[in-house]
Amino acid sequence: MLDLRTKGEGLEDLSPKVPVVQAYNRINAAFPAETAPAEVVVQAPSVRGARFDAALAAFKREAAATGRLREPVEVRVNPAGTVAVVSVGLAGSGTDRTSEAALKTLRESVAPGTFGKLAGATVAVTGDTAGNADFNERLARSMPWVFGFVLGLAFLLLLVSFRSVVVAVTGVVLNLLSVAAAYGMLVYVFQYGHFEEQLDFTATGGITNWMPLFLFIILFGLSMDYHVFVLSRIREGHDRGLPTREAVARGIGGTAGVITSAAVVMVAVFALFATLPLVSTKELGVGLAAAVLLDATIIRAVLLPAVMALLGERNWWLPRWLGWLPSIAHEPPPAVPAEPRDERELAPVA
Question: Which among 163, 51, 40 is positioned nearest to 118, based on CA atoms?
Answer without folding.
Answer: 51
